[in-house]
Amino acid sequence: MEPSFEIFDHTADAGLRIRAATPAGLLRPAAEGLYAIIGELVPADRWSRKTFEFEGSDASILLRDYLAELLLTFERDGRIASADDVTGFDDRRLNVTVRLAPVDPKRTVYHHEVKAITYHELAIRTIPGGYEATVIVDI
Amino acid sequence: MADNYTGPLERLDANRWRIPKSYKPGMNVDGIIYADEDILAAVKQDKSPEQVANVACLPGIVKASLAMPDIHWGYGFCIGGVAATDPKKGGVISPGGVGYDINCGVRLLRTNIPLKRAEKHMERLVEQLFTTVPCGVGRGGVVKFSKKELKRLMTEGAPYVVAKGFGWDSDVAATEAGGRIPDAEPDLLSERALERGHDQCGTLGSGNHFLEVQVVEHIDDPRAAQAMGLEQGHLTVMIHSGSRGLGYQVCEDALKRLHDVPGKYGIDLPDKQLVCAPVESPEGRHYLGAMRAAANFAWCNRQIMTHLAREAFFEVFGQSAEELGMSLVYDVAHNIAKMEPYEVEGRTCELCVHRKGATRAFPPGHPELPERYRAIGQPVLVPGDMGRSSYVLVGRDGSMEHTFGSSCHGAGRRMSRGAAIRASKGRSIRQELLDRGVIARARGRTGLEEEQPDAYKDVISVVNVLHAAGISHKVAKLRPLGVIKG
Description:
The complex is a heterodimer of chains A (139) and B (486). With 139 residues, chain A is α+β, with helices and mostly antiparallel strands. Chain A is built from 2 helices and 10 strands. The longest helix of chain A is centred in the middle third of the chain and has 19 residues, at 59-77. Chain B contains 17 helices and 19 strands. Classes of the chains: A alpha+beta (139), B alpha+beta (486).
């Protein structure tokens, strides 16, 4: 299954449906989906690397935490990320190294300010051929 | 469209519908929804009545779980929800009853500028406001506060930024709670919240936030309008924004912190998004302290934008804001929880009143009102959509009797963002607004489409329900002339 995301309507907000062959494979399209809601974000060509580690008791909440971290990184530092190396993702921990780049303001178009990654309808479920995650984003 | 809610809704009178507490196990009180028949038919299509019933299960809830006529689906609590809990009876505080955008609210400035004088300047005025007031994704404010300053700002509220030159002393008097809730604890905010907020004070944001230039089109209550300085045919300025990233982060941190807390206190919730803590518990006090700090930040945010709007008017009209009579009519929060005294079963109780998408609406004579509004009641500001109208109301006695001093906060969406974009295909919303006499500027590519007038219910139907119910009365109708959005 090719990793993918789709944005669906959710009253005043927006939903993300993410699919991949493995749980770890969800991370990259999840970030791409979040950025697609924010706008057409073009990275400047100055990449760096950073590792994020999360602990918890539910993989869907760890995915949410990861997206919340990316939202903060975008809002605070003006940087966007792409999951590069996922060394662990289960119900208890998420360990991911991302490539980070600043957004090129001259080539970027914004659509929405995302307030938060919510817990509403948050889920990761198995589907034929892989996994599907649902995340609702508060706009 | 099929109804999502099929449970009981018993008619109490022309404007109220009851979900009896027998509807589901765990309900401590009835649910009561303010609506006419048309609004109710729409309400049943989403899950918001179920959310009203769920809120009725909260420990210590008093009298009823209430919803205003602009009710629609939200996270945990519905939007338009009002719930008061009694801390002495195990009453809880729930971040879901406040929302992500803590102290999102509205303020209204009056002017002595007649429409006739303004018409030829309107395009330039909208452009000047668009340039002067930071809006949209990634736009920092004109003022950057250090963490130390930010904490002081969150402790002292609007008076802090007024003392720094962003406004007038009279603005503070015309702001709910004087622009400062006491007992704010900015030291409880996470580093992330401070980081998100450090350059956002004095910024509009995006989504449904806006700054609008309006004209007073019609006056229903001349006495109240006079007390507010509203004159038919004169311009007003309405600002709708909240606590920005700082407030969103406070909510997010609280949801995480309180995740396991209901279990600790033996609280059984029908929906995990109603996560809560007893008001008098350490966890409850922690959220209240942080929430109050974010609320004070939001009042500073709207205060700085007020200053910037006045500067824009000066640039265009060549007269000072004082000469243009740009005083603040009022500023109200519509996402907040506050401790307020109410009579319950013959005794005065200090209740924790959650208002999520609901506006405080104190009646005439309430001691918390500024002197000039003591005789008429508290101004209630109800934005509509950018093509039709907004309303100024005043609180009436019924609000204290029935709704814990609360009224509605807006029109409520009738289309999702995606549906609104699809409905805009082949149209120019900007031109359509222009044809209605509204000049609109937005930073986001799809902002105008998503926020187009058809995406919202007509606010008049919402306002009329509460007027008829004796909760808040109509004072003036405001018609939009120019709007800026993120």
